[in-house]
Each structure stands twice: as structure tokens, then as C-alpha cells.
Design brief:
The protein is an alpha+beta fold. The protein has one domain: GIY-YIG endonuclease (3-Layer(aba) Sandwich). Helix content is about 40%, strand content about 25%. It contains four helices and three strands; from the N terminus they run ββαβααα. The protein has helices at about 25-35, 60-70, 70-85, 90, and strands at about 5-10, 15-25, 50-55. A three-stranded antiparallel sheet has the order 2-1-3.
Length: about 100
């Protein structure tokens, strides 16, 4: 039985939010979140899949979910990458941006 741990991202009035969960059927669970039938904290937003991992047992998936919920650095990194794709959709498609970027060190 494959168990999936996932991180969802959403933009809204409060900025970017992430949500971590686990499921047996990733596509069905994302559809539930976007249909207002997911966890209460995910209702009223449009969610996209930012990250997923597959585990062989429920115990492994639940353990990884517990760790990801507490890994704020990893979730912040995913949020920042998501924010860049929202701000510049061309990067989401692997295309070069037409915007000029300055690099400072």
C-alpha cells in the first residue's frame, strides 16, 4: 500500500500558506481540499501540490508528515519557490523570463 505525504501551497489574502498531510490517493485528496471537503484549515482556498513523497507503510508516512509539519525551513523554501512561479508564470513552464533581473551579492 503506497502512502503519500504531501505539501500543498495556496495564495490568498493572508499571503502564501502551506498545508502538510498524508493520503493513500493523492489526486483524490487534492480534489477534496479544493472542493471544500478537506481539512477545515484548507477550505475556501485553491491549493496546488508543492511537494510529495511516497512511503510503503502508513506508519512511515505519518512519521514523515509529523516531521514535515515541524520543518518550517523546508516549508518556507517551498513557499518562496511557489511565490516565484506565481509572480512569473513563465518559470513554472521552464521558460526563460522576459523580466530583467539584477543579481546582487
Amino acid at each position: 500500500m503506497d502512502c503519500h505525504v504531501y505539501v500543498l501551497g495556496s495564495t490568498g489574502r493572508g499571503g502564501i500558506r502551506t498545508y502538510v498531510g498524508w493520503t493513500l490517493d493523492l489526486a483524490r485528496r487534492l480534489s477534496q481540499h479544493n472542493g471544500g471537503r478537506g481539512a477545515r484549515s484548507t477550505r475556501g482556498r485553491v491549493w496546488v501540490l508543492l511537494h510529495s513523497e511516497c512511503y510503503g507503510t502508513r506508519a512511515e508516512a505519518m512519521s514523515r508528515e509529523w516531521h514535515l509539519k515541524r520543518d518550517r525551513v523546508f516549508r518556507r523554501k517551498l513557499s518562496q519557490e511557489y511565490a516565484q512561479t506565481v509572480a512569473d508564470p513563465a518559470t513554472a513552464l521552464g521558460q526563460r523570463s522576459t523580466k530583467a533581473r539584477s543579481i546582487t551579492k
